[in-house]
Amino acid sequence: MIQTLVKELTSNQDPIKAAGMKRYMKDHFDYFGIPSEKRKEIQKRFFSENKNASGPEQKRKIVLDLWCQPQRECQYVALDYINTWSKKEYYKEDIELIYHLITTKSWWDTVDGLASNFMGKYFSLFPEEIEPIISNWRNDEDLWVRRSCLLFQLKYGKNTNTELLYSLIDEYLLEKQFFIQKAIGWTLRQYSKFDPKSVRDYLKDKELGSVAKREAYKYL
User: Fold this and answer.
1) C-alpha distances out from residue 176 to 34, 45, 171, 200, 204, Å
2) In the prediction, which pLDDT does 48 show?
3) C-alpha span between 189 and 213 (Å, rounded)
């Protein structure tokens, strides 16, 4: 299913750019070295060809096959492919796929997109799943799962469940992990655009770490 796409990506690879991209991502992943604009041009044809892929299983197989590829651009294609799905193409069982993607080949560049888009949209469609899933995930040993718990409401705006958000932040305030502290600040910064008073009130008696504090107070 993805062979033609991978072949085209391979034919457009640039070893020099690939080396630079790999260094930027702390040598965690290999790259084709294809700029975002060119990659999106290539994947647009792929998406068009697979727009009517037969059934949810085939669509998810495409995502998993892309996720298995060694070059990071393939994971970016997978994320953009998921973003083409309509609301009716989401299923409750997708939470297992979300967890798998978050915890596999994990780094901020994929996790943040998964949390704010795939996971965020999933919970907006199945709000009854928020309490049981987040209750289970919020203490997960994988930091990327915990970060995702903070970030999934990033695009909810005024619909943000502040009780849940603030309770998660309270739980993670003393955690030293950079990516958790960054997410704390990011979520507060984002929500402050919609309800600055709520964020100010929450922060009155809080001692944020320097990373979280710098982000949280950006618009206050």
Assistant:
1) 35, 43, 12, 23, 21
2) 87
3) 9
Give the total number of structural domains in the chain: 2
For residues 137 and 36, give the distance between their C-alpha atoms in angstroms, rounded to a whole number: 32
User: What pLDDT was estimated at residue 49?
Assistant: 81
* Encoded tokens for 211: 């990373």
Give the structural domain span for 199. 106-220
What is the model's pLDDT at position 89?
93
Is the alpha carbon torsion for 34, 40, 44, 47 positive or negative?
positive
What's the pLDDT score for residue 56? 86
Q: Based on the domain organization, do 13 and 118 belong to the same domain? A: no
- With H, G, I as helix, E, B as strand and everything else as coil, classify residue 70: coil
Please tell me what DSSP assigns to residue 30.
Answer: B
- How does pLDDT run across 99-151, given as a tens digit for each residue? 999 999 999 999 999 999 999 999 999 999 999 999 999 999 999 999 999 99
16 and 42 part of one domain? yes
Calculate the alpha carbon distances from 111 to 2, 54, 98, 150, 200 in Å. Answer: 22, 27, 10, 12, 28
pLDDT for 54? 62
